[in-house]
């Protein structure tokens, strides 16, 4: 049976590291955090969505938010993993607009991608070390290292995509326009905006913009807009006392039924259940902090 895993973050906000790796086996589950696994022994095996990945030492497996996965077999201390909140992905425009490409990167093999895998492995090992220190600026140092990892993955994803497109079909200028469009969406998602309006803001026809947006973002304009609105609504549900209907309205949804359906499709949980879960997690976290 599939289950949702609740990630409990430590003093390093939004990041959890398990230096001794996962249990030998763990059933299918999902969570809103991303999870990166570094194999330290041969034979670590995981299923992500419908595909099985068996890792060799030095390989990296990248599991993105809300992806169904399970541990088929992990030898004792055979890997270590870092889990981090999707907020870290969504808080920077260039990363947020690149997630469609980045999420296409599932595994970095030390044999097939030696330079990238080795560099990211070294950064993850340094992240593990910093996480376990008592440095006064431990959280900032950890997040700097995590962003260096994400940047390396983003660069890898773009190299791969340029290779698929062909250099003549990938344009830095076009990508800048798509990023500008995403920035406009992120600033005006609560308004009644259309694809034609956003295309006009970056001086493109609606038809050409639609093709370009889908190519570079790996998702259609309407679906991207829904994702942005759902994230905004989730933030309001967790951090305000506004009604569910008011949260939906402020995030740009025009009807409660559309909001409930889109939220469930994106988050895998209803808005009301999300609010309950968020508040329970934070209530428990506050109780734990009072013990120290």
Structural account:
The chain is an alpha+beta fold. The protein has 3 domains: 164 residues, Jelly Rolls (Sandwich); 48 residues; 66 residues, Orthogonal Bundle (Arc Repressor Mutant, subunit A). It has a 5-stranded mixed β-sheet, with no helix packed on it. It has a 5-stranded antiparallel β-sheet with strand order 2-9-4-7-10, covered by helices on one side. Helix 4 packs antiparallel against helix 5. The radius of gyration is 20 Å and the shape is globular. It starts with a strand and ends with a helix.
Q: What's the arrangement of secondary structure elements?
A:
Layout lengths: L2 E2 L10 E4 L7 E5 L3 E6 L4 E5 L2 E5 L4 E4 L5 E5 L5 E6 L2 H4 L2 H4 L2 H4 L4 E2 L5 H18 L6 H28 L6 H17 L6 H7 L4 H12 L3 H19 L4 H7 L5 H12 L3 H20 L2
Parallel strand pairs: 1-3
Antiparallel strand pairs: 2-9, 3-8, 4-7, 4-9, 5-6, 5-8, 7-10
């Amino acid at each position: 049976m599939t289950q949702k895993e609740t990630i409990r973050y430590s003093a390093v906000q939004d990041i959890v590291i398990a230096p001794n790796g996962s249990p030998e086996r763990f059933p299918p589950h999902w969570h809103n955090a991303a999870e990166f696994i570094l194999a330290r022994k041969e034979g670590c095996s995981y299923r992500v969505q419908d595909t099985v990945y068996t890792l060799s030492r030095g390989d990296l497996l990248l599991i993105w938010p809300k992806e169904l996965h399970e541990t088929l077999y992990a030898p004792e201390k055979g890997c270590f993993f870092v889990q981090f909140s999707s907020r870290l992905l969504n808080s920077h425009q260039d990363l947020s607009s690149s997630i469609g490409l980045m999420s296409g990167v599932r595994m970095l093999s030390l044999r097939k991608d030696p330079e990238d895998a080795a560099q990211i492995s070294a950064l993850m090992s340094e992240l593990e070390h910093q996480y376990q220190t008592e440095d006064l600026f431990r959280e900032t140092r950890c997040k700097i290292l995590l962003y260096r990892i994400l940047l390396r993955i983003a660069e890898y994803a773009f190299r791969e995509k340029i290779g698929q497109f062909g250099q003549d079909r990938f344009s830095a200028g076009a990508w800048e326009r798509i990023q500008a469009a995403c920035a406009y969406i992120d600033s005006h998602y609560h308004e009644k905006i259309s694809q034609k309006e956003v295309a006009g803001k970056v001086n493109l026809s609606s038809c050409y913009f639609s093709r370009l947006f889908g190519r570079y973002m790996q998702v259609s304009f309407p679906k991207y807009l829904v994702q942005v609105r759902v994230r905004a609504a989730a933030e309001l549900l967790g951090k305000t006392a506004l009604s569910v209907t008011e949260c939906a309205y402020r995030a740009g949804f025009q009807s409660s039924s559309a909001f409930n359906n889109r939220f469930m499709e994106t988050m895998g949980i209803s808005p009301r259940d999300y609010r309950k879960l968020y508040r329970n997690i934070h209530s428990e976290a506050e109780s734990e902090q009072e013990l120290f």
